[in-house]
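Let us begin with a simple case.
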Amino acid sequence: MDGVGPPRGRDRRRLTTLALVTTVGAVVSSLGAPLVPSIAQEYDVSLSSAQWALTATLLTGAVATPVIGRLGSGRWRRPAMLAGIAAVLVGTLVAALPLGYVALVAGRALQGVGLALVPLALAIARDAYTGTEQARVLALLSVTTVAGAGLGYPVTALVAQVAGLHGAYVFGSALVAVTLLRALRDVPADLDVDRQPVDLLGAVLLTTGTLALLLAISQGSSWGWTSPATLALLACGVVVYPVWVAWTLRSAHPIVDLRLAGRPGVVGPHAVSLVLGVGMYGLLSLAVVVVRADGSAGFGLGLGVAAAGLVLVPYSVMSVAGSQGARRLERRFGSRVLLPLGCSSFAASLALLAWRHEHLWQVLLAMAVGGLGSGLSFASLAGLIVPHVPASETGSAMSFNQLLRYLGFSTGSAVSVPLVEVYGGDGAGLTAALATLAAVCLVAGAVAVLRRRVPGATGLSAPSA
């Protein structure tokens, strides 16, 4: 650190605590996708219903990220961080108890708050460190979000295989409890500035509209597409979203700035972020389904939850490698090539899984290619957006991009399994669903190619998240 700072022992403890906080999001994610088939078996629900144990988490993360970001912008930073970790702890404890499927999904929804803590931890690090030390710490914390997920998936899956479904959530509870105790000791005092107002009504409207649409899409095949429940949810989403947009445009302190999101040069990266989020979690969800399915539907390797936990390891490794490679490509060819390459890599990974999924190595290969796409695309988004917005509005622009990314994640999680069922639910249905998602990623790549370029765009400015 530059200048006079805390003792090195305290400095290391604070860094370790912040790393634990960023890893909480990885732990939350790892308690989702690999365990979905086990949840379906444990609670005797359909696979598409069990998928909500992941979708609910991602949806909460989408809405909680801008809300907690505003709550933690000043004097409420420490309480917001501690309350967020406590909410994750309560969620993991609820999921660990045999209280039924609804309670499990509710617990998983609470765990989604953990996904919103990463930007808050980065903000604390930004204010606590200066100079080259600040850059080093921010890079380290950014990497832990990816590396932690790659490690968390196989570890929690192995625990689930040995100790059962609820044992995995007990394990997660212990990790979160340790993080909370460390945060109570090491998270610094709040900034002496007023916190930003929070648009709670906007958050409620966004959550309601998104939840209604995702429920209708994910359950439509089982409820019936013309059933009263499906039609009512679709109508709710169609009505609530325009209300949210109108409210947001009129609000003095909106949860996200939609006017800023519509500026030239920004719309394209935002759209690609949303679509790639769908493709990413579509790939992840269906890869786990392929590994766990017993083959009775015409596909599946019939492997245990520990094998399913391996799927994110090559993804995480190649995501880090891709983000580093993106910087070299940007220096040589310019930033315009990164999003098309990333979208093409995502499409290739989905196509690979559609083409060959008879062996575990084929699934892992597809995930590695998807990780490369993640590194190339998500690493470049900040560098593509920042040049087109004023410096004072950079945080708002990236907050909206993060919101779209999480909405894409939750949509991909919600629609992937029902899409297989729509196409017949067999091996051909799996192939068609993956091909559809691949086509969507290719369309996103086309949008990236055709987006209007603005002279003077700078390079990359943030690592992959």
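The second case is a distinct protein. As before, the sequence precedes its structure tokens.
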Amino acid sequence: MSSLDLERKHAEDLQRLSALRLLDDDFMNKVFEDKACAEFLLQIILQRSDLKVAQVHVQHEVKNLQGRSARLDILAVDEENRVYNIEIQRDDRGASVKRARYNSSLIDANITEPGEQYEKLNETYVIFITENDVLKGGRPIYRIERTVQETGESFGDGTHILYVNAQIKDDTALGQLMHDFACTSADEMHYQILADRVRYFKEDAEGVATMCKIMEDMKSEAARKAEREKAIKSARAILALGKLSYEEIADSLELTVDEVKALDEGKPA
């Protein structure tokens, strides 16, 4: 690649970076991998100034009982061993009620050890921060808890689901937080702790280099995913003809034999 091409590519990366907001999940992940920022976020959403985060992980991979993996945007644990999954969703489909249920079950399945008593299950929170008002009630936040319908009392199983509506940017602490999530410039943000972190990734040479690398990795991953989807589509078409073996299809499309066989058997590749 020529120096001119490199300069143009770098300029494009900087332009993309300047437009990123905390509502963009990859940028949000980098900002909130900082423990202090994750703690601040949870304190405002849950109205808990005493909450202290002990550890935080971004893009944390978990598996269900069938071995299928999923990535959680942010997984944090506080000093009381409560577990928090925070997800950013700009697409309403990614914040469906079944997705919230699934994430909650994944956390339960991955924080218990064989032989542990159910009573030792951690208290868990699944929190969706959504660009749109997914639940369409005009509320800034929705708290979902299991209750006994006949008495109205809490079921008390320790699971909590919250939806934060980023559409509402009023003068409350949560509204100001959602304002900051929509900002592209640190100078426009209310909260200094978040502004400093955003400024680092957008203005500091080291932070900018980190984000540019992440954006390049994202583009490469998207290209690999597109190629794989194309190969799977071609494999299905060739399988339908019934003229080539699994090995021949796998070799020609750079898939494994097991992947081709799974496609023929109607399983996910």
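Residues 123 and 211 are 33 Å apart (CA to CA). The chain has a mean pLDDT of 88.
Keep these points in mind for the review questions at the end of the chapter.
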